[in-house]
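Students often ask why inverse folding is considered easier than folding. One informal answer: many sequences map to the same fold, so there is more than one right answer. In these notes we will look at a single instance of the problem. The structure comes first.
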Protein backbone atom coordinates (compact mmCIF):
# COMPACT_ATOMS: atom_id res chain seq x y z
CA UNK A 1 0.00 0.00 0.00
CA UNK A 2 1.49 3.30 -1.10
CA UNK A 3 0.45 5.36 1.89
CA UNK A 4 1.70 3.09 4.61
CA UNK A 5 5.27 4.07 5.25
CA UNK A 6 6.93 1.60 7.54
CA UNK A 7 10.34 3.13 7.12
CA UNK A 8 11.40 5.66 4.56
CA UNK A 9 14.74 4.38 3.35
CA UNK A 10 15.11 6.35 0.18
CA UNK A 11 16.74 9.71 0.47
CA UNK A 12 15.64 12.23 -2.09
CA UNK A 13 18.04 14.46 -3.99
CA UNK A 14 16.43 17.82 -4.50
CA UNK A 15 17.23 20.18 -7.35
CA UNK A 16 16.25 23.47 -8.93
CA UNK A 17 16.90 25.21 -12.24
CA UNK A 18 20.44 26.53 -12.65
CA UNK A 19 21.36 30.16 -12.10
CA UNK A 20 24.16 30.95 -14.60
CA UNK A 21 25.91 33.31 -12.14
CA UNK A 22 26.49 30.51 -9.67
CA UNK A 23 29.74 28.63 -9.88
CA UNK A 24 29.57 25.75 -7.39
CA UNK A 25 27.24 22.76 -7.18
CA UNK A 26 25.26 21.67 -4.15
CA UNK A 27 23.92 18.11 -3.90
CA UNK A 28 21.34 17.96 -1.11
CA UNK A 29 19.63 14.77 0.00
CA UNK A 30 16.71 14.74 2.43
CA UNK A 31 15.38 12.06 4.77
CA UNK A 32 12.48 11.85 7.17
CA UNK A 33 9.57 14.18 7.74
CA UNK A 34 8.05 16.88 5.53
CA UNK A 35 9.68 19.50 7.75
CA UNK A 36 13.12 18.28 6.60
CA UNK A 37 12.12 18.57 2.95
CA UNK A 38 10.82 22.06 3.65
CA UNK A 39 14.05 22.96 5.52
CA UNK A 40 16.14 21.76 2.57
CA UNK A 41 14.36 24.40 0.47
CA UNK A 42 15.42 27.04 3.00
CA UNK A 43 19.01 25.74 2.89
CA UNK A 44 19.07 25.82 -0.94
CA UNK A 45 17.72 29.38 -0.85
CA UNK A 46 20.45 30.51 1.58
CA UNK A 47 23.17 28.79 -0.48
CA UNK A 48 21.91 30.16 -3.81
CA UNK A 49 22.99 33.56 -2.42
CA UNK A 50 26.42 32.06 -1.81
CA UNK A 51 26.98 30.96 -5.39
CA UNK A 52 25.59 27.41 -5.30
CA UNK A 53 23.40 25.75 -7.93
CA UNK A 54 21.63 22.52 -6.93
CA UNK A 55 22.45 19.32 -8.81
CA UNK A 56 21.05 15.81 -8.64
CA UNK A 57 24.32 14.29 -9.77
CA UNK A 58 26.80 13.37 -7.05
CA UNK A 59 29.56 13.43 -9.70
CA UNK A 60 29.02 17.15 -10.27
CA UNK A 61 28.84 18.09 -6.58
CA UNK A 62 31.26 20.42 -4.78
CA UNK A 63 29.25 20.37 -1.58
CA UNK A 64 27.16 17.39 -0.39
CA UNK A 65 24.58 18.02 2.33
CA UNK A 66 22.43 15.36 3.98
CA UNK A 67 19.35 16.54 5.85
CA UNK A 68 18.91 13.78 8.39
CA UNK A 69 16.27 12.15 10.56
CA UNK A 70 16.74 10.60 14.03
CA UNK A 71 13.21 9.44 14.69
CA UNK A 72 14.06 5.73 14.54
CA UNK A 73 17.36 3.88 14.60
CA UNK A 74 16.88 2.59 11.06
CA UNK A 75 16.64 6.15 9.73
CA UNK A 76 20.05 6.93 11.24
CA UNK A 77 21.59 3.71 9.88
CA UNK A 78 20.46 4.62 6.38
CA UNK A 79 22.15 8.01 6.65
CA UNK A 80 25.37 6.44 7.94
CA UNK A 81 25.49 4.18 4.87
CA UNK A 82 25.05 7.23 2.65
CA UNK A 83 27.85 9.04 4.50
CA UNK A 84 30.15 6.08 3.80
CA UNK A 85 29.25 6.32 0.13
CA UNK A 86 29.99 10.08 0.11
CA UNK A 87 33.36 9.43 1.73
CA UNK A 88 34.16 6.90 -0.98
CA UNK A 89 33.36 9.55 -3.63
CA UNK A 90 35.65 11.93 -1.78
CA UNK A 91 38.61 9.60 -2.44
CA UNK A 92 38.35 10.26 -6.18
CA UNK A 93 37.20 13.88 -5.89
CA UNK A 94 39.02 15.18 -2.79
CA UNK A 95 37.74 18.75 -3.06
CA UNK A 96 34.18 17.64 -2.18
CA UNK A 97 32.96 18.71 1.25
CA UNK A 98 30.28 16.78 3.16
CA UNK A 99 27.90 18.25 5.72
CA UNK A 100 25.24 16.75 7.96
CA UNK A 101 22.12 18.83 8.66
CA UNK A 102 18.98 18.23 10.70
CA UNK A 103 18.16 15.95 13.59
CA UNK A 104 21.21 13.64 13.50
CA UNK A 105 23.46 16.71 13.46
CA UNK A 106 21.73 18.00 16.56
CA UNK A 107 21.66 14.65 18.35
CA UNK A 108 25.23 13.54 17.68
CA UNK A 109 26.81 17.00 17.46
CA UNK A 110 30.56 17.03 16.95
CA UNK A 111 30.80 13.25 17.50
CA UNK A 112 30.36 12.83 13.74
CA UNK A 113 33.38 15.09 13.17
CA UNK A 114 35.75 14.22 15.95
CA UNK A 115 35.20 10.55 16.71
CA UNK A 116 33.86 9.23 13.46
CA UNK A 117 35.54 11.72 11.09
CA UNK A 118 32.99 11.07 8.39
CA UNK A 119 31.91 14.66 7.72
CA UNK A 120 33.39 18.17 7.43
CA UNK A 121 30.46 20.10 8.79
CA UNK A 122 27.63 19.57 11.31
CA UNK A 123 24.69 21.99 11.29
CA UNK A 124 21.62 21.74 13.53
CA UNK A 125 18.08 22.66 12.39
CA UNK A 126 18.16 26.21 13.80
CA UNK A 127 21.60 27.14 12.42
CA UNK A 128 21.07 27.22 8.65
CA UNK A 129 21.56 30.98 8.42
CA UNK A 130 25.10 30.40 9.64
CA UNK A 131 25.85 28.12 6.66
CA UNK A 132 27.71 30.81 4.66
CA UNK A 133 30.17 31.26 7.57
CA UNK A 134 30.47 27.54 8.16
CA UNK A 135 31.22 26.91 4.49
CA UNK A 136 33.95 29.57 4.59
CA UNK A 137 35.47 27.66 7.52
CA UNK A 138 35.52 24.35 5.65
CA UNK A 139 36.79 26.07 2.48
CA UNK A 140 39.79 27.08 4.55
CA UNK A 141 40.32 23.51 5.68
CA UNK A 142 38.76 23.66 9.12
CA UNK A 143 35.85 21.60 10.46
CA UNK A 144 32.70 23.53 11.21
CA UNK A 145 29.92 22.96 13.77
CA UNK A 146 26.86 24.94 14.77
CA UNK A 147 24.22 23.04 16.70
CA UNK A 148 22.83 25.89 18.77
CA UNK A 149 19.06 25.65 19.16
CA UNK A 150 17.27 28.95 19.02
CA UNK A 151 14.48 30.64 20.97
CA UNK A 152 13.13 32.48 17.97
CA UNK A 153 14.54 31.18 14.68
CA UNK A 154 11.63 30.35 12.36
CA UNK A 155 13.26 31.27 9.00
CA UNK A 156 10.19 33.47 8.47
CA UNK A 157 12.30 35.95 6.50
CA UNK A 158 13.87 33.37 4.14
CA UNK A 159 11.91 32.82 0.92
CA UNK A 160 12.39 29.10 0.27
CA UNK A 161 13.28 27.99 -3.25
CA UNK A 162 10.97 25.16 -4.33
CA UNK A 163 13.07 22.06 -5.00
CA UNK A 164 11.81 19.21 -7.24
CA UNK A 165 8.50 21.01 -7.22
CA UNK A 166 5.45 20.00 -9.23
CA UNK A 167 4.61 23.74 -9.29
CA UNK A 168 1.20 23.01 -7.74
CA UNK A 169 1.61 21.92 -4.10
CA UNK A 170 3.99 23.39 -1.52
CA UNK A 171 4.84 23.16 2.17
CA UNK A 172 4.80 26.25 4.38
CA UNK A 173 6.24 25.86 7.85
CA UNK A 174 4.34 27.58 10.67
CA UNK A 175 5.92 26.30 13.87
CA UNK A 176 9.28 24.82 14.80
CA UNK A 177 10.18 22.51 17.69
CA UNK A 178 7.88 20.66 20.07
CA UNK A 179 7.09 21.05 23.77
CA UNK A 180 5.08 17.87 24.20
CA UNK A 181 7.77 15.50 25.38
CA UNK A 182 6.17 12.23 24.31
CA UNK A 183 8.45 9.78 26.10
CA UNK A 184 9.46 7.84 22.94
CA UNK A 185 10.28 10.88 20.82
CA UNK A 186 13.64 12.46 20.09
CA UNK A 187 12.17 15.54 18.36
CA UNK A 188 12.01 17.86 21.40
CA UNK A 189 15.78 17.23 21.81
CA UNK A 190 16.73 17.71 18.17
CA UNK A 191 14.40 20.55 17.22
CA UNK A 192 14.16 22.42 20.48
CA UNK A 193 11.35 24.33 22.13
CA UNK A 194 8.24 25.24 20.28
CA UNK A 195 7.92 28.65 18.61
CA UNK A 196 5.52 30.01 16.03
CA UNK A 197 6.12 32.01 12.90
CA UNK A 198 4.66 35.48 12.32
CA UNK A 199 1.23 35.03 10.65
CA UNK A 200 1.95 37.91 8.28
CA UNK A 201 5.00 36.18 6.87
CA UNK A 202 2.96 32.96 6.48
CA UNK A 203 0.15 34.77 4.60
CA UNK A 204 2.76 36.58 2.50
CA UNK A 205 4.36 33.27 1.50
CA UNK A 206 0.97 31.75 0.63
CA UNK A 207 0.08 34.82 -1.48
CA UNK A 208 3.37 34.55 -3.35
CA UNK A 209 2.81 30.85 -3.97
CA UNK A 210 -0.62 31.59 -5.46
CA UNK A 211 0.92 34.22 -7.77
CA UNK A 212 3.47 31.64 -8.95
CA UNK A 213 0.71 29.17 -9.86
CA UNK A 214 0.63 26.99 -6.73
CA UNK A 215 -2.87 25.75 -5.86
CA UNK A 216 -2.37 23.87 -2.58
CA UNK A 217 -0.34 24.55 0.56
CA UNK A 218 0.28 22.32 3.56
CA UNK A 219 0.92 24.26 6.77
CA UNK A 220 3.62 22.35 8.60
CA UNK A 221 4.56 21.94 12.22
CA UNK A 222 5.33 19.14 14.67
CA UNK A 223 2.11 20.08 16.45
CA UNK A 224 0.19 22.67 14.41
CA UNK A 225 -2.74 22.97 16.83
CA UNK A 226 -0.37 24.42 19.35
CA UNK A 227 0.46 27.37 17.02
CA UNK A 228 0.42 30.63 18.99
CA UNK A 229 1.76 33.96 17.80
CA UNK A 230 1.93 36.77 20.35
CA UNK A 231 4.68 38.84 18.80
CA UNK A 232 7.45 36.24 18.93
CA UNK A 233 9.06 34.11 21.61
CA UNK A 234 8.60 30.61 22.89
CA UNK A 235 5.16 29.10 23.41
CA UNK A 236 6.08 28.25 27.00
CA UNK A 237 6.66 31.95 27.79
CA UNK A 238 3.16 33.03 26.71
CA UNK A 239 1.91 33.32 30.31
CA UNK A 240 4.40 36.10 30.92
CA UNK A 241 3.29 38.06 27.82
CA UNK A 242 1.68 41.51 28.22
CA UNK A 243 -2.10 42.02 28.27
CA UNK A 244 -1.99 43.53 24.78
CA UNK A 245 0.06 40.61 23.44
CA UNK A 246 -2.44 38.19 24.93
CA UNK A 247 -5.45 40.06 23.55
CA UNK A 248 -4.05 40.15 20.03
CA UNK A 249 -2.57 36.65 19.98
CA UNK A 250 -3.25 34.47 16.93
CA UNK A 251 -3.98 30.78 17.54
CA UNK A 252 -4.14 27.97 14.98
CA UNK A 253 -7.81 28.33 14.13
CA UNK A 254 -7.29 32.12 13.65
CA UNK A 255 -4.30 31.38 11.42
CA UNK A 256 -6.27 28.88 9.32
CA UNK A 257 -9.01 31.47 8.79
CA UNK A 258 -6.45 34.16 7.89
CA UNK A 259 -4.82 31.96 5.25
CA UNK A 260 -8.14 30.64 3.90
CA UNK A 261 -9.51 34.19 3.54
CA UNK A 262 -6.33 35.56 1.98
CA UNK A 263 -6.48 32.97 -0.83
CA UNK A 264 -10.02 31.63 -1.12
CA UNK A 265 -9.20 29.40 -4.09
CA UNK A 266 -5.98 27.94 -2.67
CA UNK A 267 -6.45 24.50 -1.11
CA UNK A 268 -5.20 24.42 2.46
CA UNK A 269 -3.97 21.39 4.37
CA UNK A 270 -2.04 21.10 7.61
CA UNK A 271 0.05 18.54 9.46
CA UNK A 272 0.50 17.25 12.16
CA UNK A 273 -2.36 17.51 14.67
CA UNK A 274 -1.90 16.32 18.21
CA UNK A 275 -5.21 15.09 19.72
CA UNK A 276 -4.52 16.76 23.06
CA UNK A 277 -4.14 20.19 21.44
CA UNK A 278 -6.78 20.04 18.70
CA UNK A 279 -9.75 22.23 19.65
CA UNK A 280 -13.32 22.38 18.37
CA UNK A 281 -12.52 25.84 16.97
CA UNK A 282 -10.13 24.26 14.49
CA UNK A 283 -12.73 21.73 13.29
CA UNK A 284 -15.36 24.47 13.01
CA UNK A 285 -12.98 26.67 11.02
CA UNK A 286 -12.30 23.74 8.69
CA UNK A 287 -16.05 23.36 8.17
CA UNK A 288 -16.52 27.10 7.59
CA UNK A 289 -14.04 27.39 4.70
CA UNK A 290 -14.56 25.39 1.54
CA UNK A 291 -10.89 25.67 0.63
CA UNK A 292 -9.63 23.97 3.82
CA UNK A 293 -9.36 20.30 2.92
CA UNK A 294 -11.38 17.66 4.77
CA UNK A 295 -8.47 15.69 6.05
CA UNK A 296 -6.81 15.43 9.47
CA UNK A 297 -3.65 13.51 10.29
CA UNK A 298 -4.32 12.65 13.92
CA UNK A 299 -1.67 10.29 15.34
CA UNK A 300 -2.87 8.21 18.27
CA UNK A 301 0.21 5.97 18.83
CA UNK A 302 -1.71 3.48 20.99
CA UNK A 303 -5.27 2.51 21.90
CA UNK A 304 -4.43 1.60 25.49
CA UNK A 305 -4.87 4.16 28.25
CA UNK A 306 -2.00 2.68 30.21
CA UNK A 307 0.39 2.93 27.24
CA UNK A 308 -0.86 6.41 26.30
CA UNK A 309 0.03 7.50 29.82
CA UNK A 310 3.46 5.85 29.69
CA UNK A 311 4.01 7.65 26.39
CA UNK A 312 3.02 10.96 28.04
CA UNK A 313 0.28 11.44 25.50
CA UNK A 314 -2.01 13.71 27.47
CA UNK A 315 -5.37 12.25 26.46
CA UNK A 316 -7.28 9.05 27.08
CA UNK A 317 -8.81 6.63 24.61
CA UNK A 318 -12.27 8.04 25.52
CA UNK A 319 -11.15 11.62 24.89
CA UNK A 320 -9.76 10.57 21.52
CA UNK A 321 -13.12 8.99 20.62
CA UNK A 322 -14.87 12.21 21.66
CA UNK A 323 -12.63 14.17 19.30
CA UNK A 324 -13.32 11.68 16.47
CA UNK A 325 -17.08 11.95 17.13
CA UNK A 326 -16.90 15.74 16.97
CA UNK A 327 -14.96 15.64 13.72
CA UNK A 328 -17.49 13.24 12.19
CA UNK A 329 -20.39 15.39 13.42
CA UNK A 330 -19.00 18.70 12.14
CA UNK A 331 -17.33 17.42 8.94
CA UNK A 332 -19.07 14.15 8.00
CA UNK A 333 -16.79 13.35 5.05
CA UNK A 334 -13.52 14.17 6.81
CA UNK A 335 -10.70 11.68 6.21
CA UNK A 336 -8.61 10.81 9.24
CA UNK A 337 -5.19 9.15 9.30
CA UNK A 338 -3.04 7.80 12.12
CA UNK A 339 0.46 7.13 13.35
CA UNK A 340 0.71 4.02 15.54
CA UNK A 341 3.68 2.52 17.39
CA UNK A 342 3.69 -1.18 18.27
CA UNK A 343 5.79 -2.72 21.02
CA UNK A 344 6.29 0.31 23.27
CA UNK A 345 7.95 -0.87 26.54
CA UNK A 346 5.61 -2.95 28.72
CA UNK A 347 2.94 -3.21 25.98
CA UNK A 348 0.91 -6.39 26.65
CA UNK A 349 -1.20 -8.38 24.20
CA UNK A 350 -4.21 -6.76 25.86
CA UNK A 351 -2.81 -3.27 25.19
CA UNK A 352 -2.22 -4.31 21.60
CA UNK A 353 -5.84 -5.51 21.34
CA UNK A 354 -6.90 -2.08 22.61
CA UNK A 355 -5.03 -0.53 19.67
CA UNK A 356 -6.79 -2.85 17.22
CA UNK A 357 -10.19 -2.09 18.73
CA UNK A 358 -9.51 1.65 18.62
CA UNK A 359 -8.70 1.24 14.93
CA UNK A 360 -11.97 -0.64 14.44
CA UNK A 361 -13.85 2.25 15.99
CA UNK A 362 -12.21 4.97 13.90
CA UNK A 363 -11.67 3.06 10.64
CA UNK A 364 -8.86 5.34 9.52
CA UNK A 365 -8.51 6.22 5.87
CA UNK A 366 -4.80 5.46 6.04
CA UNK A 367 -1.89 5.34 8.42
CA UNK A 368 1.82 5.35 9.16
CA UNK A 369 2.81 2.48 11.43
CA UNK A 370 6.07 1.71 13.18
CA UNK A 371 7.70 -0.75 15.54
CA UNK A 372 9.03 1.00 18.63
CA UNK A 373 12.66 2.02 18.32
CA UNK A 374 14.41 3.15 21.49
CA UNK A 375 16.03 6.58 21.09
CA UNK A 376 18.93 7.51 23.37
CA UNK A 377 18.20 10.37 25.75
CA UNK A 378 14.40 10.11 25.64
CA UNK A 379 12.48 9.56 28.86
CA UNK A 380 11.41 6.08 27.70
CA UNK A 381 15.05 5.13 27.08
CA UNK A 382 16.10 6.42 30.49
CA UNK A 383 13.23 5.02 32.55
CA UNK A 384 11.86 1.96 30.74
CA UNK A 385 13.40 -1.28 29.51
CA UNK A 386 12.91 -1.88 25.78
CA UNK A 387 11.38 -5.20 26.85
CA UNK A 388 9.16 -6.29 23.96
CA UNK A 389 10.96 -8.89 21.82
CA UNK A 390 11.57 -7.83 18.21
CA UNK A 391 9.35 -10.67 16.86
CA UNK A 392 6.41 -9.51 19.00
CA UNK A 393 6.88 -5.88 17.89
CA UNK A 394 6.96 -6.99 14.25
CA UNK A 395 4.02 -9.37 14.56
CA UNK A 396 1.89 -6.69 16.23
CA UNK A 397 2.98 -4.24 13.55
CA UNK A 398 1.87 -6.54 10.77
CA UNK A 399 -1.49 -7.06 12.49
CA UNK A 400 -1.95 -3.30 12.69
CA UNK A 401 -0.92 -2.87 9.04
CA UNK A 402 -3.28 -5.65 7.87
CA UNK A 403 -6.19 -4.09 9.71
CA UNK A 404 -5.33 -0.68 8.27
CA UNK A 405 -5.26 -2.13 4.76
CA UNK A 406 -8.73 -3.56 5.31
CA UNK A 407 -10.05 -0.22 6.58
CA UNK A 408 -8.34 1.73 3.80
CA UNK A 409 -10.10 -0.41 1.22
CA UNK A 410 -13.43 0.08 2.99
CA UNK A 411 -12.82 3.81 2.98
CA UNK A 412 -11.76 4.09 -0.66
CA UNK A 413 -14.85 2.04 -1.67
CA UNK A 414 -17.04 4.72 -0.08
CA UNK A 415 -15.91 7.09 -2.86
CA UNK A 416 -17.18 4.84 -5.68
CA UNK A 417 -19.82 6.50 -7.84
CA UNK A 418 -19.17 9.97 -6.38
CA UNK A 419 -18.02 13.01 -8.35
CA UNK A 420 -15.11 14.64 -6.51
CA UNK A 421 -12.92 17.67 -7.02
CA UNK A 422 -9.32 16.72 -7.85
CA UNK A 423 -6.32 19.04 -8.12
CA UNK A 424 -4.03 17.72 -10.88
CA UNK A 425 -0.43 17.38 -9.63
CA UNK A 426 1.25 15.55 -12.52
CA UNK A 427 1.42 12.43 -14.67
CA UNK A 428 0.52 9.17 -12.95
CA UNK A 429 3.54 7.01 -12.07
CA UNK A 430 1.92 4.02 -13.73
CA UNK A 431 0.74 5.52 -17.02
CA UNK A 432 1.84 8.41 -19.23
CA UNK A 433 -1.77 8.71 -20.38
CA UNK A 434 -3.23 9.41 -16.95
CA UNK A 435 -3.16 12.34 -14.55
CA UNK A 436 -2.56 11.95 -10.85
CA UNK A 437 -4.09 14.29 -8.28
CA UNK A 438 -5.79 14.23 -4.89
CA UNK A 439 -9.29 14.82 -3.64
CA UNK A 440 -10.02 16.96 -0.59
CA UNK A 441 -9.56 13.89 1.65
CA UNK A 442 -5.98 13.52 0.39
CA UNK A 443 -6.62 10.26 -1.46
CA UNK A 444 -4.77 9.84 -4.75
CA UNK A 445 -7.03 9.88 -7.82
CA UNK A 446 -5.89 8.85 -11.34
CA UNK A 447 -7.85 9.44 -14.53
CA UNK A 448 -7.30 9.82 -18.31
CA UNK A 449 -5.61 13.10 -19.24
CA UNK A 450 -7.89 14.28 -22.07
CA UNK A 451 -7.31 18.03 -22.44
CA UNK A 452 -6.86 18.85 -18.78
CA UNK A 453 -3.63 20.31 -17.43
CA UNK A 454 -1.45 20.27 -14.31
CA UNK A 455 -2.69 22.76 -11.69
CA UNK A 456 -6.34 22.55 -12.77
CA UNK A 457 -9.24 21.62 -10.49
CA UNK A 458 -11.27 18.93 -12.23
CA UNK A 459 -14.43 17.05 -11.26
CA UNK A 460 -13.80 13.31 -11.49
CA UNK A 461 -16.35 10.48 -11.30
CA UNK A 462 -14.81 7.70 -9.17
CA UNK A 463 -15.27 4.33 -10.87
CA UNK A 464 -12.79 1.94 -9.28
CA UNK A 465 -10.34 1.75 -6.39
CA UNK A 466 -7.54 -0.07 -4.61
CA UNK A 467 -6.88 0.46 -0.90
CA UNK A 468 -4.71 3.49 -1.73
CA UNK A 469 -5.89 4.87 -5.07
CA UNK A 470 -9.13 5.96 -6.70
CA UNK A 471 -9.58 5.58 -10.45
CA UNK A 472 -12.07 7.59 -12.45
CA UNK A 473 -12.96 9.81 -15.37
CA UNK A 474 -13.11 13.59 -15.56
CA UNK A 475 -16.58 15.03 -16.14
CA UNK A 476 -15.60 18.73 -16.38
CA UNK A 477 -13.86 21.59 -14.60
CA UNK A 478 -14.60 22.43 -10.99
CA UNK A 479 -16.14 25.85 -10.31
CA UNK A 480 -12.95 26.55 -8.36
CA UNK A 481 -10.97 26.64 -11.61
N1 LIG B 1 9.88 4.59 17.64
C1 LIG B 1 8.95 4.33 16.70
N2 LIG B 1 8.19 5.27 16.13
C2 LIG B 1 8.37 6.56 16.54
N3 LIG B 1 7.77 7.71 16.18
C3 LIG B 1 8.33 8.71 16.87
N4 LIG B 1 9.29 8.24 17.68
C4 LIG B 1 9.33 6.90 17.50
C5 LIG B 1 10.10 5.85 18.07
N5 LIG B 1 11.01 6.10 19.02
C6 LIG B 1 6.65 7.77 15.23
C7 LIG B 1 5.38 8.32 15.90
C8 LIG B 1 5.29 9.69 15.35
C9 LIG B 1 5.89 9.52 13.97
C10 LIG B 1 6.33 10.79 13.33
O1 LIG B 1 6.98 8.67 14.18
O2 LIG B 1 4.30 7.51 15.50
O3 LIG B 1 3.96 10.18 15.31
FE1 LIG C 1 7.42 13.89 19.09
FE2 LIG C 1 5.15 13.95 20.55
FE3 LIG C 1 6.26 16.27 19.67
FE4 LIG C 1 5.12 14.59 17.91
S1 LIG C 1 4.06 15.67 19.61
S2 LIG C 1 7.13 15.62 17.70
S3 LIG C 1 5.58 12.58 18.77
S4 LIG C 1 7.17 14.84 21.15
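Output (designed amino acids):
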Amino acid sequence: MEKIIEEKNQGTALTLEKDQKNTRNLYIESYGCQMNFSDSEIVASILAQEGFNTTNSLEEADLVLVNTCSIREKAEQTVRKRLEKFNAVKKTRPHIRVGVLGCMAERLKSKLLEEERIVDMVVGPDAYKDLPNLIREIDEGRNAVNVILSKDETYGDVAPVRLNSNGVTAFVSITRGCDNMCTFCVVPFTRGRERSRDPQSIVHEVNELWEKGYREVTLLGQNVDSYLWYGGGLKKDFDAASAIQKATAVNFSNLLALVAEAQPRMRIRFSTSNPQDMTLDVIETMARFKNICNYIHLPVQSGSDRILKAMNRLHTREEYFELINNIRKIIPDCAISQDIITGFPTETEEDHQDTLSLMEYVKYDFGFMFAYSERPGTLAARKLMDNIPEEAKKRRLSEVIDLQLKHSLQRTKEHLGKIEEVLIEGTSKKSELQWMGRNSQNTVVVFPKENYAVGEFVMVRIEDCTSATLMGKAVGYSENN
